[in-house]
Amino acid sequence: MAIPYVRATPISLTVTGGVTKSFAYSGRTIMMDPRPEIAAFDYSALRGDLAHVEVLLPPDAPAMYLDPAALAYALDVKEIQKVRTPLSQRERLPQIVMSAVIALPSAFEVSGDEALTIARRIALYPCGSHRVPIHIAIHNAPARPQGRAAGRADPLRNDSR
């Protein structure tokens, strides 16, 4: 039986990446950072353990954000626009989203659909009635299946404010 475990950490905007880098890693794909000086994040070689990727959106969010790359790009751009002091000179980096690593039961205990339901419930619980976009990726690592979820603290509206 899986040991209940969730580790939450903020994803910060750094000189070398932000939400785009995190979503590319957890989604095992290639994504472009909005800053042209940063090379593409390519984690596609790790795709072997990826079981599922999805974005949960509030009802009023634009459908284009169902694409994890579009959502990550928009979240990074939103935060980059607020930065006044260069990131390299900051002691505290801007925190864009909260990320959670969720230990999931093994395939011997639950089906893939049940594991996804568990990950969704855990990811949605802290949001309460505040509907925010959430990126979920499920990895089927042989020893420890896990879900990764990242959600923004405030809603991403149509005008990306």
Residue ranges: pLDDT <50 for 5 or more in a row?
none
Order of helices and strands: EHEEEHEHEE
Mean pLDDT: 84
Strand order of the largest sheet: 1-5-7-6-4
Principal-axis shape equals globular
Helix content: 10-25%
Query: What class do helices, strands and sheet pairing give?
Result: alpha+beta
Features:
161 residues, alpha+beta, five-stranded antiparallel sheet, two-stranded antiparallel ribbon, 3 helices, 7 strands
Characterise this structure.
This protein is of the alpha+beta class and 161 residues long. Helix content is 21%, strand content 25%. It has helices spanning 19-26, 68-80, 112-124, and strands spanning 6-12, 30-31, 41-42, 50-56, 95-103, 134-139, 146-152. Strand 6 (134-139) and strand 7 (146-152) form a beta hairpin. The protein is globular and about 50 Å long. The mean pLDDT is 84.
Write the layout of secondary structure elements.
Layout: E1 6-12, H1 19-26, E2 30-31, E3 41-42, E4 50-56, H2 68-80, E5 95-103, H3 112-124, E6 134-139, E7 146-152
Antiparallel strand pairs: 1-5, 2-3, 4-6, 5-7, 6-7
Helix pairs in contact: 1-2
What can be said about this structure in brief?
This protein is α+β, with helices and mostly antiparallel strands and 161 residues long.
